[in-house]
Amino acid sequence: MELTKPQVDIIKAVDNHWKMYNAGATEREMLNALNCTKSFYDWHRRKLVDAGYLTRVPGRHRDLRLTESAKEVLT
Questions:
Q1: Between the N and C ends of the chain, which has fewer C-beta atoms within 10 Å?
Q2: Burial, 73: exposed, middle or buried (Cβ in 10 Å; 0-12, 13-18, 19+)?
Q3: Coil, strand, or helix at residue 33?
Q4: pLDDT less than 70: residues of the chain
Q5: pTM of the predicted model, to two decimals?
Q6: From CA 66, how far away is CA 49, in angstroms rounded?
Q7: What is the DSSP secondary structure assignment for residue 23, as one 8-state letter?
């Protein structure tokens, strides 16, 4: 899967939040960091999870994490 700029931006925002707070971001924190709508964020986040760039635990807050594939995008 070729990543779009918004998808790379989401990966970077997840990484930055973990580096700053040693915890995952809430949905609201991600929306503020990316300055985007909920539907835009949800669509791209789902694509990244489905493609194996992000993982999450359904029903838990602050659970969004980068996979090794996403970490390779950052290098």
A1: C
A2: middle
A3: helix
A4: none
A5: 0.92
A6: 9
A7: S
Distance (Å, whole) CA 70 – CA 74: 7
CA atoms of 17 and 9, how far apart (whole Å): 12
For 29-40, how does the pLDDT look when each residue is reduced to its tens digit (9 = 90+)? 999 999 999 999
3-state SS, residue 55: strand
Q: Dig out the tokens for 17 from the structure.
A: 């939040």
Under 8 Å between Cβ of 48 and 11: yes
3-state secondary structure of 6: helix
Report how far residue 33's alpha carbon sits from residue 10's, in angstroms, rounded to the nearest whole number: 9
What's the confidence (pLDDT) of residue 57? 83
Q: Spell out the domains of the chain, with CATH numbers in brackets.
A: 5-74 (1.10.10.10)
CB atoms within 10 A of CB 45: 20
User: Which residue shows structure tokens 């925002």?
Assistant: 13
